[in-house]
Amino acid sequence: MTATTSGRPSAGGARAQLAALAAAGDPLLTGLPEAPSPRAAAVLMLFGVLDSIPGIHDADAVSRDLDVLLLSRATTLRAHAGQVAFPGGRIDPGDADPVAAALREAREETGLDPAGVDVLGSLAAVPLERSSHVVTPVLGWWRRRSPVRVVDEAESADVFHAPVADLLDPRNRGITVIRRDGITWRGPAFEFGPHLVWGFTALLLDGVFDRLGWTEPWDRRREIALPAPLGPHA
Length: 234
Known about the structure:
11 strands, three-stranded antiparallel sheet, eight-stranded mixed sheet, globular, about 30% strand
């Protein structure tokens, strides 16, 4: 881990750790069920110093100025309505690879300039049985900031930067529980202001934080209520 002269972690150290994670090529999440004929998709996990507002929590492993880019889906969508997500979507025939798809979707959804993004690499694809997708997470570093916003209100309700240190704050962590068709699903969750990060997005964040040794001890018994009602494709 790279530290500043004060001995605190630096954002540059986080960049090196993320790049090493991508280069290792190890699966981030294992044991997830797969759909028989999944559609390929990609998401952009974009980290960096995205604004001048530091996080509140003084984390042990990351600097307070390290952010991650997230968005919340429009509440009118049929699938994943209102959920917090990474920019991303299906890989189109015109996309050269998952990286191209993730950058294209991020530009379309948030208005960011892909030229300012350093692609650190891709993680192993993750299956999503319920939505019949297999998703490649693309790790990126925002080398040169550009304005972001909701581009299409029919698709997104908000685009925002979340300080990683605040997501790591044990007070903001818990689990969500879904009981459906006789099956109980428990997964990690993060509270950030008015937003609740859960589901696939929280799984990816939790996996990255654990793999890099950023996770701080948190109460894995603390259940956070999900917004109701959940749609059939949540």
